[in-house]
Amino acid sequence: MRSLEPLSAPVGAAEALRRIAFLLERSREGTYRVEAFRKALKVVQKMAPDELRTRIAGGRLTEVSGIGKSTAAVITQAGSGELPDYLKSLQEKTIEPLAAGGTELYAASRGDLHCHSDWSDGGSPIDEVVLSAIELDHSWLALTDHSPRLTVANGLSAERLAEQIRVVDKLNGALGERFRLLRGIEVDILDDGSLDQTEDMLDQLDIVTASVHSKLAMDSGPMTRRMVAAARNPHVNVLGHCTGRLVTGGRGKRAQSKFDAHKVFEACAESHTAVEINSRPERVDPPDDLIRIAMDLGCVFAIDSDAHAPGQLDFKALGCDRAEKLGIDPDRIVTTWPLPRLLKWARG
User: Fold this and answer.
1) Superfamily of chain region 103-347
2) Which residues contact 196 (CB under 8 A, 6 or more apart)?
């Protein structure tokens, strides 16, 4: 993987808008700001080139629904062969990497086993997520939208998941050998440790990341049994954000769930289920002491972005920084593995 190089003139209007949205997402700017540029991007992509040139020349871009004053300025400057001022300023502000360390591990990373699209609670369509992953030099990416019980996140029913699988297969047919989008899901771990999706649908997926999203304050005994059952489930490849904690951010703080970490991580190690190192700044999950327990018990790990927007795929730099500081052998991190090895592990 690599960080994106700053753009320079000349740059197309769509490319400028896309990069601005990416950098705003990477910096965790407000959704309304990101949406303004994503919306304008969709408009520009659908507009005929002649109409775009005519509107730029006539100063009539803002007459089009979805293009405002700021986005019109970006499109106009890009159309004139200039690097838009907005993009130039943003690139100068965001030139620093997200993390001071972890650069070698970040460079060695090949993919991500936890990201979302606008099919559930992500901010962008699948093709935009894929394009950003390719630009970041991913070799593969698992699309893991939510399962049906998480209605607040527009979780996918079996029918919608089947439809998404068809979309993924079609995209892979167009992408060829350069990149592989994996069929996946972030499936809810239910109260008894069972999974929130049908066996038939889980059988059709490449990757299953399983996470607890409800009753996070459950007593330690039942929570331990719940998580052990999920870790041992033959469908599950990754145990996602295992403590459920929030340490900062707009949703406030939330204490970590209580469970017997030794029993949970023993189940992960014995079942070859990866323990996720969730890279979202508000999660930093699991905390360092639990990662050390998982290391001692022989677990493998997945450093994931849990991206809900294309620019957030770069959050992996934060997880790589933590993993490097903790001294995790890169070979124990499944997100550094080439696709054939990853798929053999996932299917095993």
Assistant:
1) Metal-dependent hydrolases (3.20.20.140)
2) 147, 148, 149, 150, 155, 187, 188, 189, 190
**Structure tokens that stand for 252 in this block:** 């406030």
Average pLDDT rounded to a whole number, residues 84-111: 94
Whole-prediction pTM = 0.95
Write the DSSP assignment of 4-20 as a string of letters.
Answer: PPPP-SS--HHHHHHHH
Main-chain phi, psi angles of 220, to 5 degrees: -60, -45
CA-nearest of 256, 244, 192, 185 to 213 is 244
**Parts of the chain belonging to CATH 3.20.20.140:** 103-347
Pick from 322, 266, 332: nearest CA to 300: 332
The pLDDT assigned to 258 comes to 98
The gap between the terminal CA atoms of the chain, to the nearest Å, is 26
Q: Classify domain 13-93 by CATH number.
A: 1.10.150
List CB contacts of 287: < 8 A, sequence separation 6 or more.
243, 245, 256
pLDDT surpassing 90 at residue 251: no
How are beta strands 207-211 and 238-239 bridged, if at all?
parallel
What percent of the chain stands above pLDDT 70?
100
Contact (Cβ atoms closer than 8 angstroms) between residue 61 and residue 346: no
Burial of residue 291 (CB within 10 Å: 0-12, 13-18, 19+) is: buried
Distance of alpha carbon 177 from alpha carbon 260, whole angstroms: 43
Do 304 and 112 touch, CB atoms closer than 8 A? yes
Q: Where are the beta strands (DSSP E) in the chain?
A: 140-143, 180-188, 207-211, 238-239, 274-278, 301-304
